[in-house]
Amino acid sequence: MKIYNFGEQKSVMNRFIAELRDKQIQKDSLRFRRNLERIGELFAYEISKQLKYEERDVQTPLGIAKCQLPADKVVVASILRAGLPLHQGVLNIFDSAQNAFIAAYRKYGKDNKFKIQMEYATMPSIEGKTVVLVDPMLATGSSIILAYNKICTNGEPLHTHIVAAIASRESLSLLSKNLPHSKVTLWVGAVDEELTNKSYIVPGLGDAGDLAFGEKL
Description:
Blueprint: E1 2-5, H1 13-21, H2 29-48, E2 53-59, E3 64-70, E4 74-80, H3 84-93, E5 98-108, E6 114-122, E7 130-134, E8 137-138, H4 142-151, E9 159-168, H5 169-178, E10 184-192, E11 194-195, E12 201-202, H6 208-213
Parallel strand pairs: 1-10, 4-5, 4-7, 7-9, 8-9, 9-10
Antiparallel strand pairs: 2-3, 5-6, 11-12
């Protein structure tokens, strides 16, 4: 599985990631959502370079222009609710894409152990399409694997690009072992080394869903 870690590069994305992490800036939920959205836009632009293109004629007021336009059919998919701002950023670039949404959450039992509970999914046919699957945080990586497998029940994607603002080192290992290497590319803004006993990323940024939309019961 090809992994693009933008934390290893010098770009403006590093500023957006830094603001997502900053506990003072996090108090502004509008800015938190907007930073996730901007990160999605940057990732989508980079992903667009890997799509297939075809030349088409475009009629201008003065003549015909030869333009290279994307030929791939794109589906943008996200895990609710934290994935919504990142989803919107990707959709801002792939504005004619179809969309898929998956409701999944951690269901805790004893000793801080949990399983991923998936309750709802709505999606178009994925057959032969390029999927951009987004989730702001990849902690253990188990939820994104379940989401990928769920998506594949609606067809075999041409290729899947997984997008996350921050991932743990552990999640990268799990995804590499459980997803088809030639069919999946992972894009992350930063990789953190530590997980707590509750599987929270350290230093991470906290709960992305709560920071974007408010605390839940």
